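In the design runs reported in the main text, the only information available to the sequence generator was the tokenized backbone. The following block is the verbatim input for one such run; it is reproduced so that readers can re-run the procedure and compare outputs position by position.
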């Protein structure tokens, strides 16, 4: 196989060349610990300050409101656990949705064991929460609303500004897991009234293992990792200088290229959706038809096992996913597809293709051509499909 066609950018992205070049000096030349006193430390310290400004700018935040973490999962854990700790006098009720990433859902079940009460909002068939249901779920002891900006499996974008407004009208903190959205679609923490926001470097061409938690000034949130005084005493541990530098550079590039990138990805995404839906029968698009991430498509093909589809695509060098990377080694259908109302047998046949700025129309056309053949082959081996066609003919 000469070349792979990588269509799993929601799972992780490639570090871009510009980002890597920015990072390299911080492994050997400028390896100082930014917390030290001597002037050799000053360069690392300055580089972190610059990255903090770059990461803040992308979402309209102030640099001092950005905390570097070890990735999206850590940011989500920190936001939820530390908010519960800081606001426990007001109450222990949290509102979230059924389609959050496991970094949120599993943290919520952990908090339930510690005595928190969690309301899991339903979503409609496109994956959107209902603002009325959100309003109805609010109680006097609600301390936090955490709803993702955009879903990692089906790409649906939630009404974040409206959620922020409702949260603040009721004096409730609003956290959003923006790991899939940060850098990919416009986000503004003031206009959207976001109090805390999680993002992760490796979802936007920075390295794995580095992320941010935005915490609005004035939000009382405890530290999560105890130790040294890094990150304004709130997240201890010697700063991961190269990765932080990479994250900052990647954020800057995302900001500079966002408009162009959205346009390009949307065009290719829509071409892909249109071809698959019109050329492959018994196919359903999962997620919102228009309010979705520019780089995400997700389909269900009736009578097909997602696993077999992925194996056959792999044989021709196509990297894709069924559900999310974190759950693909379990046989349970995705909690997101079940939440949008798909029956188990259909939720098994899902395929997620997520594009990057480097994905071309030619690659997509190749993938659709191959997909048509693969699906026909698989359906021809399926007894369910055979029965279905017989019944249709009897009609
Ligand atoms: C990838 C992802 C995470 C986890 O981020 P890591 O940096 O891999 O820990 C959390 N939430 C969403 C929506 C994601 O897509």
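Verbatim output:
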């Amino acid at each position: 196989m000469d070349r792979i066609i990588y269509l799993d950018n929601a799972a992780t992205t490639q570090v871009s060349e510009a980002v890597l070049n920015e990072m390299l000096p911080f492994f050997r030349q400028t390896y100082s610990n930014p917390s030290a006193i001597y002037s050799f430390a000053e360069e690392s310290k300055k580089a972190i300050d610059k990255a903090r400004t770059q990461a803040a700018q992308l979402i309209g935040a102030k640099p001092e409101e950005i905390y570097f973490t070890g990735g999206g999962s850590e940011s989500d854990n920190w936001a939820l656990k530390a908010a519960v700790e800081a606001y426990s006098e007001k109450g222990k009720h949290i509102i979230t949705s059924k389609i959050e990433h496991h970094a949120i859902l599993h943290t919520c079940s952990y908090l339930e064991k510690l005595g928190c009460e969690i309301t899991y909002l339903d979503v409609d068939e496109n994956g959107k929460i209902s603002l009325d249901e959100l309003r109805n779920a609010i109680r006097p002891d609600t301390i936090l609303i955490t709803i993702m900006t955009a879903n990692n499996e089906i790409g649906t974008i939630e009404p974040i500004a409206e959620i922020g407004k409702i949260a603040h009208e009721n004096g409730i903190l609003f956290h959003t897991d923006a790991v899939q959205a940060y850098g990919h679609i416009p986000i503004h923490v003031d206009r959207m009234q976001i109090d805390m926001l999680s993002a992760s470097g490796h979802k936007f061409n920075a390295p794995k293992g580095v992320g941010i938690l935005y915490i609005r000034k004035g939000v009382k949130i405890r530290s999560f990792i105890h130790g040294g005084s890094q990150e304004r005493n709130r997240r201890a541990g010697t700063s991961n200088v190269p990765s932080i530098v990479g994250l900052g550079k990647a954020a800057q590039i995302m900001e500079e290229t966002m408009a162009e990138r959205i346009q390009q990805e949307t065009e290719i995404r829509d071409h892909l959706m249109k071809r698959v839906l019109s050329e492959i029968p018994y196919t359903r698009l999962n997620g919102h038809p228009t309010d979705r991430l520019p780089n995400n498509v997700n389909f269900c093909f009736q009578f097909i096992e997602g696993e077999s589809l992925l194996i056959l695509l792999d044989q021709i060098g196509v990297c894709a996913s069924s559900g999310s990377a974190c759950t693909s080694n379990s046989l349970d259908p995705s909690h997101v597809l079940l939440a949008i109302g798909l029956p188990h047998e259909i939720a098994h046949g899902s395929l997620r293709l997520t594009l990057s700025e480097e994905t071309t129309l030619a690659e997509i056309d190749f993938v659709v051509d191959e997909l048509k053949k693969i699906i026909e082959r698989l359906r021809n081996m399926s007894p369910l499909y055979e029965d279905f066609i017989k019944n249709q003919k009897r009609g």
